[in-house]
Amino acid sequence: MRRPPIEPLLEIEKLSxxxxxxxxxxRAVDDVSLRIEPGRTVCIVGESGCGKSVTAxxxxxxxxxxxxxxxxxxxxxxGDGVVDLAxxxxxxxxxxxxxxxxxxxxxxxxxxxxxxxHTIGQQLIEVLRLHEQLGKAxxxxxxxxxxxxxxxxxPERRIDAYSFQLSGGMRQRAMIxxxxxxxxxxxxxxxxxxxxDVTTQAQILRLLRTxxxxxxxxxxxxTHDLGVVAELADRVAVMYLGNVVEECDVDSLFHDLRHPYxxxxxxSVPRIERRARRRLPTIRGQVxxxxxRPSGCPYRTRxxxxxxxxxxAENPALVSDGLREVRCVHYPTAESIRDGHDLRPEEVxxxxx
Length: 353
Description:
By secondary structure, this protein is of the alpha/beta class. It has 2 domains: 1-90 and 187-271 and 280-296, Rossmann fold, CATH 3.40.50; 110-181, no CATH class. The chain has 12 helices and 12 strands. The chain has helices at residues 52-59, 93-98, 110-113, 120-132, 136-149, 155-158, 168-180, 198-215, 226-232, 250-255, 260-267, 334-339; strands at residues 10-21, 24-36, 41-45, 67-78, 81-84, 103-106, 186-190, 218-223, 235-240, 243-249, 319-320, 325-326. It has an 8-stranded mixed sheet with strand order 6-7-8-3-9-10-12-11, with helices on both faces. Strands 2-1-4-5 form a 4-stranded antiparallel sheet, with helices on one face. A hairpin with a 4-residue loop joins β11 and β12 (325-326). The radius of gyration is 21 Å and the shape is globular.
């Protein structure tokens, strides 16, 4: 049964972020559309270099030069009404007010994101005093409470520690405390568990789920790990070379998927029940360099279902059936998406053009 439409908290429409380098134009994010509803989790998944992190950084206008947003809108429903983040000055007061207070961000590597010359407490207190207008003593007490809330033991002592004095898991918890200190409506998490061991990763994922349930925030989670997607996501966007190629609910991703790239990703996941000495399926070839983007569909050079004369001619439009979106020549209409398509692997010689 189809859920009634909910006003999105964040709606990205036809976003393009390009890098004009000395070696040529890099279309890191190209015509991306996404929506995130309040209290829901959307995961963006794909191989390295597909544009996941640039999409996340574009939301908060944190893309370093020569990168810039060249098209599209990022509409965020803030406390003061709907605002287009893509139209704001990246260094202006309005966007600085939204960053940290209404949208928090957790980065992939806290050791690089945290200042090595300031204590965890100094950095957390600065966030609270900037956005909450608290006095020093009150901000310190609040900072200790935030550290305790993310599971850091002895927060009264840890607040005066430097980032290099904490373990990887503790640093990531401190980053989460900073991102959520002002109770944002949206948390953007850019592969926050990638550098952690599996036990600590599971603890951080449980922490995020618990905090989301307690605070009702939405999460945009960037990952390449489909196990994390299964654990956290309500909806999933699969990206390849700057494009969203499929967007659907998490159950459909694992049990009723459509796009050939999504199918290839799922096939390449190791499974316990695989017989010994059987070769693990892989996606043939490599992700093309962004400056050598193939004509037409960017996935066609690795796809087992290429349609000559179509896939190399133009990149298909993103088509929706109301429940999911797919960008593929095999799904040109809403009806074809609903009916599915029995894609049978074919022997195709990859075209490097």
